[in-house]
Methionine ABC transporter substrate-binding protein
Amino acid sequence: MQRPAHRWTQGPPRARRRDPSPSAAAGPADHHSRPRAATSGSSDEGPPVSNTSGSSTPLIEAPSRRRWPLLLAALVAVAVVVGLLVVLTGGDDEAAADRRSVRLGVVGASDPYWTDFQEAAADEGIDVEVIDFSDYNQPNPAVSEGELDMNQFQHIVFLADYNVAADDDLQPVGATAIYPLGLHSKQYDSVEEIPDGATVAVPNDASNQARALVLLQSAGLIELTSGGTIFSDLADVDEAASRVEVTALDAALTATSLDDLAGAVVNNDFVERAGLDFDDALAQDDPADPKALPYANIFAVRADDVDDPTYRELVEIYQETQAVQDGVVEVSGGTAVMLDTPVEELQASLREVEDDTRAAEQD
């Protein structure tokens, strides 16, 4: 802590009284007397200035010539530090400006691989906010209305049904995987054990319902009058020729309703959440079948954003990050078939299904 500088004020000069006495001339100098001029042998620091105590110690010491290089070096060092701070701060601002933000809607955000996906995207300068939905009917309108940038929860058939019904034009921008659809039961260990007349549930959304009905027909539980298509619904069930009755429930409720049903076709998103095991499915379709492409799960965006480089990059990150790919397979119980289908093929499949859907509505 520095001591405060001694303040010294000098009042108006008083006239000196002549003292003819020799002893007075030889006495100590008056503390208001003017200092004597420095001799040639005096110090560089100049003559001392008397203070109020009569001491000859200088009140303000003139800077030494030897200190100027040190002072100059200090000023240069300060300038360098300030310059570095400006550069570094400007670099941070520039890096922040280069980062991109994307809002992604999914069903099942708690799946661990989404964290791996976010981290991999962040490494590439993309901050992904994953928004969770429990209702399949919400993510598509959210993208269309701009609340989301993209979503990943549906297959091509589901998207086609939405686009036709809503007169919308969302488009696939990349593929993720095909998941088998399985028939589960808490009461029976095989399809053969399910008694005639029992009730089996299927999802109530059009695309998954058609797929579930085709699965039940393949398992020998029902007969479909059309033979089974992507447009089959409950009205297509030949009740007289079928072993079981079929009811439609929200996809999220099929698994949780198993205590009251002989069986239910459960979407992959809800299998583990309901405490079920993928390996315990009584029957399932074949995701590796080439005809299964319409059931490929996809990233979907607005039509104007199909060529957006950030969205394309996110698809690549999903498809090329091993932790993400391994995580998807693990969450699916080893049943997922991972895809990197070209966007053009996905879009062509979507157009075909949309055309078939419109034609079916006109019949």
